[in-house]
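Protocol step 4 of 5: obtain the predicted structure for the target chain.
Materials: sequence only (see below). No template structures provided, no constraints applied. The aim of this step is simply to have a reference model before the mutagenesis design in step 5. Sequence pasted as it appears in the construct record:
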Amino acid sequence: MYIISAGMSSGIFHYDGSAFSPSGSGSMYLVDIWGLDEDHVWVVGYNRQNGDSQILYYDGTAWREKYYLDFSEWWPDNVNPDTLDGAVQTVWAYGDTVYFGTRHGVWKESVTTRKGSMVSFTDLGMEIFWIRRIRGNGCNDVFVVGNKGEVVHFNGRNWQVIQEGNPTYEIRSIDVKDDMILLVGHDNNLRALTVRGYR
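Step 4 output (structure tokens):
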């Protein structure tokens, strides 16, 4: 099992069942980690000063930099569907597909072929530009949450907004288990917020 310690001195640690040991580090503020198995683990982070992003990948042998993204634009007029772009905030994978949430949309990439495409905020139906988390139950049951609580669902064919954003709170993460969805974050006064929903 791998975990990350977030912050300016971010690190990656491996737990072998009895103890933690350092496993790697990034040059960025590390914010999310996801693994399919012991040979496919991703960590994402970004530079809080200039917006550059880094995606690290563990292939079962060593951590390597998979992508380094130079900052481009906060709000692009046009998103290139063939380019991974924007400050990366989250990663989630299922089967042969890995998803990266950025300031410009969601990048979907094949684990085996590494071919991917960007789904822009317009295509997602989102108005808020900051994706906090992507989680799901499968490739036909994917949830994306924006920082103001906007939730978008992918059913394998279409993206649909299932909850509009709210400027009075900030959502930090989402988790999904079968038919239950859990959102966590805080309101504008920094009071903790937990929202649980069923479908």
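Step 4 remarks: The longest strand covers residues 29-37. The chain has one domain: 2-162.
Proceed to step 5.
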